[in-house]
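Chain and conformation:
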Amino acid sequence: MLYLTELTSLVLMVLISIINGAIAQSNNCALLVLDPPELVVQYGDPVSVSCHSLTNSDNLSWRVSQEDVLSSDKQNVTWETENLTDWEIEPVCSMMVAGVQCAKSLPVIVYKLPDQVSISVVNHTGPLIGGKKYDLQCDIQNFAPVHVLAVFWYKGGEPVKNRGFGNFTTKTPSNQIVTLRISVGKDEENVQYSCAAKLKLGLLSFPMVESNLLQISVHNAPIFNCPATYEGKENDIFKDECLAKASPEAKITWEKDGKMVNSLHKLTRGDSGSYVIKAVNQHGSAQHNLTVNVLYAPKIEPDKEVVKVKKGSKVFLSCTAEGNPEPELNWSIQSQIKATGRQQTTLTIVSLADAGVYTCTATNFLGNDTRKVSLIVEGENPIKIQPDELVVEFGALASANCSINTTHHGMGWEASQGGIESVDNVQSLTWKVESLTHWDIKPICYVNTDKQWQLELQVTVYKRPDLVSISTVNHTGPMIEGRQYELQCDFQNVAPVHLLNVNWYKEKQLVHSDSFTDETKTLVNKTMTLQVSTQRGDDGVQYRCEAELKLGPKGPQPPPRVTSDPLNITVHYEPVISCSAWSPIINTSLKSYIYNLSGNPIPNITWYRDEAQLSFDMRLGRNDSGQYTFVASNAIGKSSCTTNITVEYTPIFECPKEYEGRENYISLSDCLVMASPKASVTFKKDGNTVNAVHNFTRNDTGLYVLTAMNKHGTAQHNLTVNVLYAPEIEPDKEVLKVKEGSKVSLSCTAKGNPEPELNWSIQSQIKATGRQQTTLTIVKVSLADAGVYTCTATNSLGNNTREVSLIVEG
């Protein structure tokens, strides 16, 4: 049998007290079972949790917000509430075991789904610009707790990113802002973004709270999607395959050889060449080099129709043609090819047997053209005519001298005008007409020897047109941009028409040339037309047409030309706007906006905001920044521009004079600085510059002077900040050993804002109270005074406790 002495019993009691104290201090007593063991509850919902003791116990109870729920028996106690509204509640179930408190905490998460989730673009309104980066902002309002929040980002319905807040400890409702940096592609046009918030609470499933769909319009500088070359047939309509992708729509211009030209419409051979196509909008410009190749059938240049040569001499029959592709040429007689070449070929003839009609043929895959030449090979004709060819203007003097070096029986001239009878005893005879008026005259000099010799003088009679005029066909008044029109050039009394070349000019630039195939040699009236398409750049330009008689090397140089009076073109086109943002000072009127605008007739301007029409004289206030639209309209059409107007003004504070809130949760969200452009803000406390405070701590309490400054001025505001925080008890001994009968004092000091109330208690019996600091004094301590004493500090933000185990030794 083991006998315990009084001393041994005392030591054993002390050891049991220490062990039980350690168990109690762990706040996870193994003798207590909670059902449920943890709690996830929506704010305001009812709650019921039971606490079961595995042994008989004393004072089994729940401690919840300083209120105890005592058990009706020694093994079970239930805590219930109809409406849980304490965000930071920390229920503790406890009991006394061998005079020592044993406790277990109930983990509680009180949650609230967000009131609203919204998405926006940070510091930007209006379309986004391709190739730039922007921040999107997701606002999650009034939810709790923060650490279980997950935010999901979506683009076009597809997830792109998510974020959690596991390192945040805030339990009360708060607002959170999450940002996402995006890069806008240059090929994007319109995209949708959204964000969603979800509370992740273990295995529990909660619905996502989704934001609105953010419709984003993307503006881009022009990008060309074009072939490098274009090939088409003359007179075909140009198929514009050169697209400039841009938002807003770009203004397109064409240049050739450094000069502005119309875009192509009905192709002519003169359109072949290299073009620079430029596209410009408010966000940038682009250009594309396009090589145009216009294909057309061959055309042979006119030349002599009859060639006379002497026997034994060389003659060169030349044939020149243009065409695309380059034509193949051949000279033939009686279907026998005599010579071939490309573009230009020459046939050499030397004998009488070579006389006949020769045909030059020019061919490419688009067609062919021919020219015939009658070659007359003569023997040793003694007659010489000087000059051997005449080009004479109608009504002008014409003369040529016929000579011979041998004896004869008479010589003369046969001609429809100015003929001369046979004359003897002369070696030369001149044919002369003071005013040549026969169009198809063919003077022949003849000489009689033992036979009659003849030689014809080649004569071309021409007349400049009396009048060359230009006009539009079936149209009067202004032309409309983008439409096709026909110009007509009229020539009165001109001959010979087959030598008439028509040149079309736009300003000083030759845009087209053409000719006639009519072989009429007498006076005619002729008309030539030209198809044109109009652009706004054509407004005010002049077209002219010109008659040019190509009379060959024997004709006057330069060739005779007659030009029409200019045709002035007026082009009407719908307004064209180049948008630009505007940052006026406050009280500026809308009519002060500087327009980059063109249109014909002059456009009328109307301003709108949110589809409401505005007065042209409206003066802009500081709340008028935003997106505006102005519409320019005329009789042809209308165009609109959506522009950002940022009204600039000096800083203004919208801020309370006093600010009070909980530590780490208080921020200056209600203290706004209204300024445009954005103001730089400095903080001063006690005369010293400090950093801007985001989450206030207790040391931030005090008076602040806030100064805001931008380029338009400065403003100041005085702000008193009072930071509240829950009580904190200063640490001290956790175990105190005293002898029976001695005096003992238990001191407890706490700080907090508001000032906390303190009390000492044991087994729920309050022994002493005070503020900030209180002391429990036991003048003569007894063994019955041993136990766990609790100091509790309380203010409106919460409470804190410190426990001291008092061990009384006999």
Remarks:
- The longest helix spans residues 6-25.
- The helical segments are 6-25.
- The CA atoms of residues 171 and 561 lie 96 Å apart.
